[in-house]
Write a structure and sequence with these properties.
The chain has about 325 residues and is mostly helical. The chain has two domains: about 200 residues, 3-Layer(aba) Sandwich (Rossmann fold); about 90 residues, Tyrosyl-Transfer RNA Synthetase (Orthogonal Bundle), CATH 1.10.240.10. It is built from 13 helices and five strands. The strands form two sheets. A three-stranded parallel β-sheet has the order 1-2-3. The two termini are about 25 Å apart. The protein binds adenosine-5'-triphosphate and L-tryptophanamide.
Length: about 325
């Protein structure tokens, strides 16, 4: 048995993967692979909590798997798999459903925001419990995510504690892990809203597969703040957001970037940032295209991932069945 701490995280194969997803989640994952026993999941069952076109969904699952690899996830180091390929996720969800109060779910911010549209599904309401099942099945220590998912990881901790105190110790209590800079990348068009796959204004979101010209156009059109100084500050949400993107894509500290642009204007800063983002994304896009040419190889990685995932999750689920009197 590995003595390394366990990491679990996932992204939904819905919409296009964007720089916010990369910075808040994937950049952490890539850096954790050598130190931790990592499980990275394509959470397709979460994606269907809102309506999806079946043919597009299957293509999106493959696209996301290829992007995981292109961003630097290494199947020799990490277990990469598709959530619905392992039925244990849905099985544990039901058991946790029966332990969760309606009130606990009604408090979830993401649900409150997303259920605005008429006809919100029961799945959308139940979404955080499926996420808790994902995490708890693997006896996870750390969950690297963006800021918006913190509340869901806290619910996961509460559910694990409740189960353990009702039935005896089964689950590890996981902790969220968030970046100090980049946990919430904001829309380029509205620095008060997070950059999001489902955002209607596409100019606010930089997709990992955007062309260099599109990236340049979006960054040059980004909303900035009054004044001229290029500094990170709460009353400069637009510039602070661009500085966070600059920092992650170049590896420079925010104060180094502030110094570099002390006497420069917004236009120069944005034009340099656009170049840095293009320089950062081009190799990811090149690798993505190469990986897509080998669909068999990709499928093999996901099959092996499923097997490794199942080996771990099965043990937890067996204990759950025993403790709850189902076996
Ligand atoms: P949707 O709009 O469909 O909710 P999303 O853009 O929020 O999608 P998710 O699949 O929900 O993307 O998120 C995947 C991961 O990326 C999560 O860990 C989430 O916290 C992180 N993430 C999403 N948006 C951002 C962002 N703007 N800044 C930092 N991290 C983010
Ligand atoms: N809800 C997450 C995606 C997700 C997840 C997980 C993240 C599903 N299961 C388990 C971490 C761990 C989101 O980003 N929307």
């Amino acid at each position: 048995m590995s003595s390394q701490k366990r990491v679990f995280s996932g992204i939904q194969p819905s919409g296009n993967l964007h720089l916010g997803n990369y910075i808040g989640a994937i950049s952490q994952w890539v850096n954790m692979q050598d130190q931790y026993d990592c499980f990275f999941c394509i959470v397709d069952l979460h994606a269907i909590t809102v309506s999806q076109d079946p043919q597009k969904l299957l293509a999106k699952i493959k696209e996301l798997a290829a992007l995981y690899l292109a961003c630097g996830l290494d199947p020799k180091k990490s277990t990469i798999f598709v959530q619905s390929h392992n039925p244990d996720h849905a099985s544990l969800t039901w058991i946790l459903d029966c332990l969760t109060s309606m009130g606990q779910l009604e408090r979830m911010t993401q649900y409150k925001t997303k259920s605005d549209q008429a006809g919100a599904s029961v799945g959308l309401f139940n979404y955080p419990i499926l996420m808790a099942a994902d995490i708890l099945l693997y006896q996870t220590d750390l969950v690297p995510v963006g800021q918006d998912q913190k509340q869901h990881v806290e619910l996961t901790r509460d559910l694990a504690q409740k189960f353990n105190s009702c039935f005896g110790p089964v689950f590890k209590i996981p902790k969220p892990k968030m970046l100090s800079v980049g946990a919430k990348i904001m829309s380029l068009q509205n620095p008060k809203q997070k950059m999001s796959k489902s955002s209607l204004d596409k100019r606010g979101t930089i997709d990992l597969l955007d062309s260099p010209q599109t990236i340049k156009n979006k960054i040059m059109a980004a909303v900035t703040d009054s004044g001229q100084e290029i500094i990170a500050s709460p009353n400069k949400p637009g510039i602070s957001n661009l500085l966070a993107i600059y920092s992650i894509t170049t590896g420079l500290e925010i104060n180094q970037i502030e110094k570099r642009y002390q006497d420069k204007n917004y236009g120069q800063f944005k034009s340099d940032l656009a170049q840095e983002v293009v320089k950062f994304l081009t190799p990811i896009q090149d690798r993505y295209r190469t990986i897509c040419q080998n669909q068999k190889g990709l499928a093999k990685i996901l099959t092996e991932g499923k097997q490794k995932a199942k080996e771990v999750s099965q043990k937890t689920l067996d204990q759950v069945y025993q403790k709850t009197g189902l076996r």
